[in-house]
Structures are given as structure tokens and as C-alpha cells.
Write a structure and sequence with these properties.
- Helix content is 51%, strand content 14%.
- The protein has ten helices and seven strands.
- Strand 5, helix 6 (175-197) and strand 6 (203-209) form a beta-alpha-beta unit.
- The radius of gyration is 19 Å and the shape is globular.
- Bound molecules: NADPH dihydro-nicotinamide-adenine-dinucleotide phosphate (NDP).
Length: 283
């Protein structure tokens, strides 16, 4: 009964929930997108370009960024620049934000989306990899947000943080990755409170995604999960809309919100069901 009631309540909330997205608000908006050379970040860049934004792209591969930049121009970006940077280096986040602020004269949106290579395998005991992934997936987000906060405050801007279902509920084969995403939830959830309490008008949107059909995700999950992947362009649009609407959280696909509610209420039985979606062959 409790299960049904929770499902019905969550369903009603999802049904009546509408965001306040105004596409025109993005025309001329100044945006920095990380992890913009591929996957969801690339699609995020294309959506902002269609809405007429001014964009700075960053990732490591310069040649790919150049191609994404050219496509953004054909789609309608008002201005566009790119800066190659490796977020495993602690000095890069500040440099990237300085570059964006200098090129665009400020920032309205900071979209934090990049990730280091995800192994999607059982825990092997590699502590050094976890340390490195924390730097790329978490500490660089903290440094980028910290460097951008003063300029975002001036423009009453928005921080948009791309996370994962596995940053809300742990899933198999994602030990280190899941830890980095839980860290994002904790840090940016706490920062949101503080910004509101200090009456600093910068919104913080955490985006919780399920499996998305990017080349890298399909590659590392192949043969290991029985889950269908959702389209990256749709995931990217949900992120752009949620950021523009200054939503606290975006769930894509939307039913993930109900799944998280169920997991909070019934962690043990939900986890039992969850494990049936993963292939485990004992050595
Ligand atoms: P991709 O692997 O497709 O793209 C990752 C991006 O990050 C690329 O642009 C890559 O470019 C860049 N990148 C990788 N390493 C570094 C680095 N050291 N420094 C700077 N940039 C780097 O990822 P997805 O598009 O699949 O994922 C995007 C976001 O969505 C992530 O935050 C992920 O956690 C989240 N997500 C994705 C899901 C999925 O199923 N795809 C599910 C849930 C969440 P380059 O190689 O040029 O540096």
C-alpha cells in the first residue's frame, strides 16, 4: 500500500510539474560548456547554438572542438570560442573560466559535464584511479564553479551540474564513478543552500541522468547491463531547459525521480531488483 501511494504521489508530481522554460531567454546568453567535444556535452552545445547563445567549449581534443565549433556556428551560435584543457590538471579550471569571461565579457551559465574514462567494472583495488577520477569528475567541478561564482553572481546566472542516477543510488560496477557523483550531490546541494541563505542569486541545477546512448557509455556497458539507453540530444535538451528554468534538479528520463523515491523508501528490495539488470559472471 505504501509503495502504491508513493508511486501515485510521485507520478502526480511528475505529471503536473512543468518547467518555466523560455527559449528566448537563451538568445545571447553567455555559456561555458565542459566536456563539449563529444556525447551529451556536444549535444548541449548544439542546443545552446540553436537558441542563439554565445558559447565557450572546452575538452581535451582540439581538433574535435574545432569541428563542434563549426557546427555550432551553422546552427546559429552568436559567438563561439574553444579552449583545450585537461581537467586532471588542478591549474586548468581557473584558466578556462578566465578565458571564457575574457572572451564573452562574463558568464550566464556554467555547464559542468565532463568526465574522465569510466571503467564500468568490478572494484579492482585501484586507489590511484579513484584519486584521479575524483580530480577530474569532482574537484575540477568545484574549482570551475568557485572561479565562476563572482561573474555568475553579477549576471544572476546559473550553475548546471551533470550527474547520474548512480550519484543518488549506488549501482554495480561504478564504485569510483558513483563516489564522484555522490560527492557532486553533496557539495552542490550544500552550496545551493548557502547561496539562497546569503541571497546570492545564482541557481544550482543538478541533472540526474539514466543510461544515455553516447558512444562511450554504450561501449563500456556493452554486455553488462539489460537496460535501454535514452537519446543524448533529448538528455541534453532536458539539461538546457532545466538550467534555464533554474530548477533544483532535473531527472532524465523523468521516471528516475519516482525510482529514487522508491529506493529511499525501500532500499533493500529496490536494490535486489536493480541487481537483476546487471550481468555478473563470477571468476
Ligand atoms: P562522453 O565520454 O561521451 O564525453 C566526455 C567528455 O568529457 C568529452 O567531451 C571528453 O572530451 C571530455 N573529457 C574526458 N576526459 C577529460 C579530461 N580529463 N579533461 C577535460 N575533459 C575531458 O560522456 P557522456 O556524454 O556520456 O557523459 C556526459 C555527462 O553525463 C557526464 O557527467 C556523465 O557522468 C553524465 N552521465 C552520462 C550517462 C550516459 O549513460 N552517457 C549516464 C549518466 C550520467 P575529450 O576526450 O576531448 O577530453
Amino acid at each position: 500500500k505504501v509503495l502504491c501511494a508513493a508511486g501515485v504521489v510521485a507520478g502526480l508530481v511528475a505529471f503536473f510539474w512543468k518547467d518555466d522554460f523560455n527559449p528566448e531567454s537563451l538568445s545571447g546568453a553567455r555559456v561555458l560548456v565542459t566536456g563539449a567535444s563529444a556525447g551529451i556535452g556536444e549535444q548541449i552545445a548544439y542546443h545552446y547554438a540553436r537558441f542563439g547563445a554565445e558559447i565557450v567549449l572546452t575538452a581535451r581534443r582540439e581538433a574535435v572542438l574545432q569541428k563542434v565549433m563549426e557546427k555550432c556556428l551553422t546552427l546559429g551560435a552568436k559567438k563561439i570560442f574553444y579552449i583545450p584543457a585537461d581537467m586532471s590538471s588542478p591549474s586548468e579550471p581557473e584558466k578556462v573560466v578566465q578565458f571564457a569571461v575574457q572572451k564573452l565579457g562574463g558568464l550566464d551559465f556554467l555547464v559542468l559535464n565532463h568526465i574522465g574514462t569510466n571503467r564500468f567494472q568490478e572494484w579492482s583495488g585501484d586507489v590511484e584511479y579513484t584519486r584521479w577520477l575524483m580530480q577530474v569528475n569532482f574537484l575540477s567541478y568545484v574549482a570551475l564553479a568557485t572561479a565562476a561564482l563572482p561573474t555568475l553572481e553579477q549576471s544572476s546566472g546559473a550553475l548546471v551540474v551533470v550527474s547520474s542516477l548512480t550519484g543518488k543510488m549506488p549501482t554495480p560496477f561504478t564504485t569510483s564513478y558513483s563516489a564522484t557523483k555522490f560527492a557532486l550531490d553533496g557539495f552542490f546541494g550544500s552550496l545551493r543552500h548557502e547561496l539562497i541563505m546569503q541571497k546570492r542569486n545564482v541557481s544550482v541545477t543538478l541533472c540526474i541522468l539514466g543510461l544515455i546512448d553516447t558512444a562511450s557509455a554504450l561501449e563500456y556497458t556493452r554486455g553488462k547491463v539489460h537496460l535501454s539507453a535514452s537519446p543524448a540530444p533529448e538528455a541534453a535538451l532536458a539539461i538546457v531547459r532545466g538550467g534555464a528554468a533554474r530548477a533544483d534538479e532535473v531527472f532524465y528520463p523523468r521516471w528516475l525521480r519516482q525510482l529514487c523515491c522508491l529506493w529511499t523508501l525501500f532500499p533493500s528490495s529496490s536494490s535486489q531488483v536493480l541487481r537483476t539488470f546487471y550481468n555478473y559472471s563470477s571468476p
